[in-house]
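User: Before I run my own analysis I want an independent prediction to cross-check against. Here's the chain; please return only the structure tokens and, at the end, one sentence I can use as a sanity check.
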Amino acid sequence: MPPPIYHYTTGDRFLRIIASRAILPATAHVTPPEIPAVWLSSAPVWEPSATKGVVENGVRRQASLAELIGLCGCLVRIEIDHARVCLLGPSEFRDALCIPEDVHQRLLAAGIEMGADPADWRAVAGPVPLTAFRRIEFTIETKPPKWISWPGFRPAFH
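Assistant: Structure tokens:
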């Protein structure tokens, strides 16, 4: 069985996922012909590139996980069923999503600077529907995050 693959997000964004009944592709800074994607990770604890930035005294920096919880309510980890999506691996997503080489290099460099391992990254071109969710977990703890399954969640395919 392949390792679990997750979409990491924050509590406020998770509410939008539930309202949309899908994880919608990221469109910020995506210029045609580049294809928007949903970004996933095999990182088991937290995907560092999912950490949001904050502006403090006019300077942008990465928020700590505790700050994210304070700002967004909680952290959320959604496990995705590999069989229900068309996963693009690290060696595939640049070409498949038509990401320009310079943009791809900046994406990798930014992820590494944030502490991410781009080898963990996967992408899906298009939305990931609720029916592809295997498990939903949340945490309000950070050292380390203690993931708690969403009570009552039942995957649509089981």
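Sanity check: The chain has one domain: 5-149.
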